[in-house]
Design a protein that fits this description.
This protein is 0% helix and 56% strand. It is built from no helices and 28 strands. Strands 26-27-1-28 form a 4-stranded mixed β-sheet, with no helix packed on it. Strand 12 and strand 13 form a beta hairpin.
């Protein structure tokens, strides 16, 4: 999604696509309806990210078993569109109707994984050459953001073979002709994991990325929220306040240079406390603002956020009540409030959200009918349509 970015459930997973919109008149083209996206049969399906171009146009990406999954909303229905590679697509963003990026991870060699980048140019998706393939390390991308046709960023992480070794933050930059690796400094002790989960590019000189950094110097280990800023020359870590001793940021989005939100979860290992986390940048520093935490029996999490203006932002995730349920929150410029959302099956979660306006917003994720793959059920795929 332009200037906006964006844990799988146990059991047989299906996908949800939920339209969550404020009241408003129907568009002239009548494209504000919602339909259920199809799924590939006899395998787990999930949608991880969505990018919305208009009332009649949106893309969602994810995976169906070992295969990448791409779906397109044409104003009337969702349709599966052929993808040129196996793997798992985790992020998507559109520059225009004929220029859409999707990123993720693909198998590489016998034991490793490599970056996966696909591009839509108006007629078909094509796999795009990119760094991030090695016989000694595994690479994967989870988020992409493009501010123009000549400026896009994709982030993720790399690890040693077979998933061993230290996990390191990884970033690629598109400059209009090719993707290039950009060095991301390693934070914390040399042996601590660093990962990036989401990126938002406002311009070639103003990019934010968020994730987490591990700290094993404390008994039992801790996790700290990681916020990085690109100033056109290099990545720098920016201080962000934390709650508890476990902090993860999964999504970041911005409506402008002085209005950036990041969302995730926090926890406290000493007493088991935890909940959703929302932090806000206003141009001079980051601050924590209270966010909905409806569950009293388990951790709640916000996976993704889209910021439309300083008085209009949406975040989506999961709450434990007692099984996983969808969680939707809205920022009205003063406070975050929970918004009712629909669930399917025995467990549901929302993983990605995007919007072009408060009257045209989509969220995507997955649901399951049972908590164990031994249940023998063959779940359907669901699309939820909610209008407020």
């Amino acid at each position: 999604m332009q200037h906006r970015v964006g844990a799988c459930l146990l059991g047989l997973a299906t996908l949800i696509a939920a339209a969550l919109t404020a009241p408003g008149p129907a568009s002239a083209g009548g494209c504000l309806g919602a339909g259920q996206p199809p799924n590939l049969p006899n395998r787990d399906n999930r949608l991880d990210a969505v990018t919305v171009l208009g009332d009649c146009s949106a893309w969602a990406v994810g995976a169906a078993g070992p295969h990448t999954l791409i779906e397109r909303w044409n104003g009337t229905a969702w349709h599966i569109v052929a993808s040129p590679a196996d793997g798992w697509l985790r992020g998507a963003d559109a520059v225009s109707a004929t220029d859409v990026w999707a990123v993720g991870v693909r198998p590489f060699g016998a034991n490793n994984s490599a970056t996966l980048i696909e591009r839509w140019r108006g007629t078909a998706w094509h796999r795009f050459a990119a760094p991030g393939a090695s016989s000694t390390r595994s690479f994967g991308l989870v988020s992409v953001s493009a501010s123009s046709a000549a400026n896009a960023w994709a982030v993720g992480s790399s690890t040693g073979p077979l998933g061993g070794g230290v996990e390191r933050s990884y970033a690629l930059r598109w400059t209009g002709a090719a993707w290039h690796t950009v060095v991301v400094p390693h934070f914390g002790a040399p042996g601590e994991d660093n990962t990036l989960s989401s990126v938002v590019a406002l311009s070639a000189h103003n990019v934010w990325a968020v994730g987490e950094v591990a700290d094993s110097s404390v008994f039992g280990g801790t996790l700290h929220s990681l916020v990085l800023h690109w100033n056109g020359q290099a990545w720098h870590r920016v201080h962000v306040p934390e709650r508890g001793n476990l902090g993860r940021l999964y999504g970041v989005s911005a409506s402008g240079p002085h209005d950036v939100w990041a969302v995730g979860e926090w926890g406290q290992t000493t007493n088991g406390a935890g909940g959703t986390l929302a932090v806000h940048w206003t141009g001079s520093g980051w601050s924590i603002l209270p966010s909905p935490h409806p569950s009293s029996i388990g951790p709640d999490v916000l996976h993704s956020v889209v910021v439309l203006s300083p008085t209009d932002a949406w975040a989506v995730g999961t709450t434990e009540q007692p099984s996983p349920k969808t969680l939707v929150a809205h920022w009205n410029g003063i406070a975050w409030h929970r918004v009712a959302s629909t669930n399917r099956g025995t467990a549901s979660e929302l993983l990605g959200v995007d919007a072009t306006s408060s009257a045209n917003l989509w969220a995507v994720g997955d649901s399951s009918r049972c908590q164990s793959k031994s249940c023998g059920d063959n779940p359907r795929t669901y699309n939820l349509a909610i209008r407020k």
